[in-house]
Design brief:
five-stranded mixed beta sheet; 6 helices; mainly beta; globular; ten-stranded antiparallel beta sheet
Length: 804
């Protein structure tokens, strides 16, 4: 999941808490038997659903409201003004709101042990679909919260005082902000957000809500880490959304390490509106989505291992070529992709407002499939399932600015499957569902909280249908393991730092790679049997139909190229990608191949694609960054984020297009704005780098002739430079704008042992390469104890005693 909120197991009672917060008896969440939807309209016959009554309300708060406190904790001058929660004025929404009667409470029965089978988990709590009671509300401009009229102390009854008595957390010193109980629009989802740029460390963000006339307990919401993997501009950080069956008032509190309020703190509540077709539309037929296959395809088979291998080392992109591919093979050019495709409720059917969505970057292949849970209420009707998805979509796409719903697919307790992120039915859009591991994976979320209840059998079966379809389509071995590479950014919930290669099951839970309880302690153990069942379905489909036709061919780009929107050199250009980039060929047309690339799907000349790994190519020049900057997957700021490159980082420029440079660095390989790089300069002689602009200043160390430097500025006859051994000063007369050679060769020799090639003339400086015993050496200069040399792996310094 992106671990969404805790939710109600039954309306008008306490919200269900996640593990560690005091759990009630485990109950089965099997739904009552659903009848066939009254409408059998397919997505091909019906227009996109447009729900009515959609609304959203955000309330800012910057302090502890005295009205929220018990009488003995209020400031003396505000005690006489205490008022019950019901006296708080409602903030009117900008649109007429709709209200609905509450669903009847769920009867909770003890569930079977977590190891019990789906067939044994047969408890079926009764569910009444709420009847709709609509009343008109006059539209009004949003109003600020106003304080209630002063009320005598004795007017606060026992229930109100009890609510105030439970308002404070155990650690009052860290309490930064607390709202009074506040009436709102009727809502399904609620969440807390604050500015991503805040320096305050939020340690707890909690809400409690009123359903009907009863208040829930406090619910601590999991905080979403800032994750820039998708490349979307991040301005807000926040919590998972709280999912309810319908609430009409909220109270929020936030704790920080310092006790100070984070900037831009808001609580947002979302009413997803209603539609007469909610829960009534028949899912779209699989046949409607079938597409012909145009090309020779390929598959790769990952070796099977067991467990999660956290010991895999970090591999730096500056020293490697793209990842190796598996063996390629030709398959029959026929459409098998949807042989196992289940019926799915499309975005247009559940009512996605497409104006909120932005197009996602594409994964070049599928390696693994995540199972999540939304951690929301387990007691919802079929109609409310549609509404929950719209609420989660609004919170992800607009409140958190993720650009779309995080998951590729969702499954409800009745076994209905829903399309999530736009494009998930026919491609591999990068989601926001497993921070650091969103690329080359998909996420399927089970709607409910399975830390407190067994998943219904219908839901488990629906999960297996999606897994089998996607696994078959992309040639996965469902009961084997695969290797994922972490792309975690600072603040991510990933357990492994960026660049770490982690061995995981092809079908895995969110908790396998991220710090979370998702998909819950009762769903997670079922993954083992699900892998076996899914693998058997894929094997049967392959025996009958052959491979799934989305097992496309992974290839490498021979040179930096512009990806076209059509065939032919005259077609418009989608964007530029670099030599050695991995692409996936999904079709051909004459001398052109249709490919999935990091910047999207388009066309490239077939002659520019290689079935074999391509090196990154020769280095044009070496430069240094002027500031911390963003590396992109393509030559434009609109393309997805790949890595953050720090200030003064050394980069090797491989090629250029327009205002962008294709570079390789310790942070990876990709595109950086050329304006963020210092102009290339070189040392014209072996030179000592000084700590200040004076020949008498202390020395940092010596670099060799032809070493690349970045000039930050000048002072008299000295230049401040960035070098491989650090920042310092050197005579401007020894800085040249023309690339020079390391100088004449004064001797040729070999190493007398295995040794290290250094970036400067001292053992404390960084390593450039390791030289084998007997390596051939050309010596250009000598200083005490060190020789400046050229070798087959580069130029640098070697201890003179290590040479024959």
């Amino acid at each position: 999941m992106p671990n969404f909120a805790l939710g109600f197991l039954a309306p008008a009672v306490s919200l269900t808490l996640i593990a560690g917060l005091g759990l009630p008896a485990v109950v089965s969440s099997d739904p009552p038997t659903q009848t066939t939807p009254a409408s059998t309209t397919t997505s091909e016959e019906t227009e996109a659903v447009t729900p009515t009554g959609q609304d959203e309300e955000s309330i800012s708060f910057t302090e502890v409201d005295p009205e929220a406190l018990p009488l003995d904790a209020q400031p003396q001058d505000s005690v006489s003004a205490s008022a019950p929660p019901e006296a708080v004025e409602s903030v009117e929404s900008s649109e007429p709101a709709e209200s609905s009667a509450e669903a009847s409470p769920e009867t909770s029965e003890p569930a079977e042990d977590a190891a019990s089978t789906d067939a044994e988990a047969t408890g079926e709590p009764s569910t009444e679909v709420p009847s709709e009671v609509t009343e008109d509300q006059s539209a009004a401009e949003p109003q600020a919260l106003s304080a209630p009229a002063p009320a005598p102390v004795d007017e606060r009854d026992a229930a109100d005082q009890e609510l105030a008595e439970t308002a404070l957390p155990d650690d009052e010193e860290q309490l930064a902000a607390l709202t009074a109980p506040t009436e709102t629009i009727d809502f399904i989802a609620a969440g807390l957000t604050w500015n991503a740029s805040t320096t305050e460390n939020v340690v707890e963000a909690s809400v409690r809500v009123r359903e009907g006339d009863q208040w829930s307990d406090w619910n601590e919401l999991e905080i979403h880490p800032i994750d820039r993997e998708s490349g979307v501009t991040v301005t807000k950080q926040g919590t998972e959304p709280l999912i309810t069956n319908g609430a009409n008032a909220i109270q929020a509190r936030v704790l920080t390490e310092s006790g100070d309020v984070p900037g831009g703190l808001e609580v947002t509540v979302i009413d997803p509106g209603e539609s007469p077709t909610d829960g009534e539309l028949a899912p779209a037929s699989p046949a409607l989505e079938e597409e012909p296959v145009e090309a020779e395809l390929s598959s790769s088979v990952a070796p099977a291992t067991t467990g999660v291998d956290a010991s895999a080392s970090i591999r730096l992109a500056s020293s490697i070529t793209p990842e190796e591919s598996g063996m390629t093979r030709a398959i029959q050019a026929s459409s098998n992709a949807n042989v196992l495709k289940p019926a799915i409720v499309t975005r247009s059917q559940w009512g996605a407002n497409e104006s909120w969505a932005v197009d996602s970057a594409q994964s070049p292949k599928l390696d693994a499939m995540y199972i999540h849970h939304t951690a929301g209420t387990n007691n919802y009707s079929a109609a409310q399932a549609y509404q929950q998805i719209r609420a989660i979509y609004s919170y992800h796409a607009r409140t958190l600015n993720w650009g779309d719903i995080g998951y590729q697919f969702l499954v409800d307790r009745y076994g209905t499957i829903y399309e999530g992120r736009r494009g998930a039915l026919t491609s591999l859009p990068v989601g926001a569902q497993a921070g650091g591991f969103n690329t080359n994976t998909i996420g399927i979320s089970a709607m409910g909280n399975f830390d407190v209840a067994q998943p219904p059998a219908a839901m488990v079966e629906a999960l297996q249908k999606v897994l089998a379809w996607q696994g078959y389509r992309h040639g996965l071995k469902a009961n084997s393991n695969t290797q994922l590479t972490s792309r975690a950014t600072p603040g991510s919930s990933a357990k492994y730092p960026s660049g770490t290669k982690v061995t995981v099951p092809v079908i895995l839970g969110h908790r396998d790679t991220n710090s979370t309880a998702c998909p819950g302690r009762y769903l997670y153990p079922k993954l083992s049997s699900m892998r076996t069942n899914v693998a058997n379905r894929i094997a049967a489909a392959e025996r009958e139909h052959g491979p799934g036709d989305a097992v496309h061919e992974q290839m490498w780009l021979r040179s930096t190229q512009g990806v076209k929107n059509g065939t032919g050199v005259g077609a418009s250009t989608l964007g530029w990608i670099g030599r050695g980039e991995i692409v996936t060929r999904i079709g051909t047309n004459g001398s052109w191949s249709r490919v999935q690339t990091p910047i999207g799907t388009g066309w490239l000349p077939t002659k520019q694609l290689s079935q074999w790994q391509v090196t990154l190519g020769a280095v044009m020049e070496t430069r240094y960054t002027k500031r911390s900057t963003t590396m992109r997957v393509g030559a434009n700021s609109k393309f997805a984020f790949r890595a953050t490159v720090p200030d003064q980082a050394r980069v090797e420029v491989l090629s250029r297009f327009g205002a962008w440079s294709y570079v390789t660095t310790d942070a990876g390989t990709g595109w950086i704005a050329t304006s963020h790089l210092h102009v290339a300069r070189w040392a014209s002689a072996t030179v000592m780098i000084k700590r200040s602009p004076s020949s008498s200043a202390a020395s940092i160390g010596r670099i060799g002739r032809a070493e690349a430097v970045g000039v930050r500025g000048t002072s008299g006859s000295w230049s401040e430079v960035i070098t491989p051994i650090g920042r310092g000063w050197m005579p401007t007369s020894q800085v040249t704008a023309s690339k020079v050679s390391p100088g004449s060769v004064i001797s040729t020799t070999t190493t007398n042992r295995r040794t290290t090639l250094k970036v400067g003339a001292h053992s404390s400086f960084g390593d450039r390469a390791v030289l084998a015993n007997g390596a051939r050496i050309q010596v250009h200069a000598r200083v005490p104890y060190w020789s400046y040399v050229t070798t087959s792996v580069g130029t640098g310094w070697v201890a003179t005693t290590h040479l024959k």
